[in-house]
Write a structure and sequence with these properties.
Blueprint (H helix, E strand, L loop, with lengths): L5 H4 L4 E5 L3 E5 L9 E5 L11 H22 L3 E5 L9 E7 L27 H9 L5
Antiparallel strand pairs: 1-2, 2-3, 3-5, 4-5
Helix pairs in contact: 2-3
């Protein structure tokens, strides 16, 4: 485990589900309710560091989180991102977006939109994430 990697040292958010390969965390982003991360449990910098089976399983988790967010939160769009420029540890951001959120239509890392509206998360999201992710088969 690299000593400088924050995702090797910390959970990266509130864990809502995990298996041997990865964990799903709810990010602490108050302006982006439902923002989740899927984080590989071991250190690897790139998706191609994983086996084909691991890549498939990881993406199935990402797609399951996206599907649950769409069903529960009904956002205008879902953004998926795997950057790793600041934290070179395989992880995916799954970000529900609304047309008048803080940055829409730009990425959440862009300059803020001053005409935004703050949303509150759907109470059922955490429960649905846990319940439906438990149904995934490795």
């Amino acid at each position: 485990m690299p000593t400088q990697c924050p995702l090797c040292q910390q959970d990266g958010g509130k864990i809502v589900w995990r298996n041997d390969l990865a964990r799903v965390v709810l990010a602490d982003e108050p302006d982006y309710p439902g923002f989740c991360r899927v984080i590989l449990n071991r250190h690897a910098a790139e998706m191609t560091d994983l086996s084909v089976a691991e890549r498939t399983e990881l993406m199935n988790i990402v797609w399951a989180v996206e599907s649950i967010q769409r069903s529960v939160l009904n956002p205008a769009k879902i953004n998926l991102a795997s950057l790793g420029n600041m934290v070179p540890h395989v992880h995916w951001h799954i970000i529900p977006r609304w047309r008048d959120d803080l940055h829409f239509p730009a990425p959440i890392w862009a300059s803020a939109n001053p005409d935004r509206q703050v949303y509150t998360p759907a109470a059922a999201l955490l429960e649905q994430l846990q319940h439906q992710l438990e149904q995934l088969k490795p």
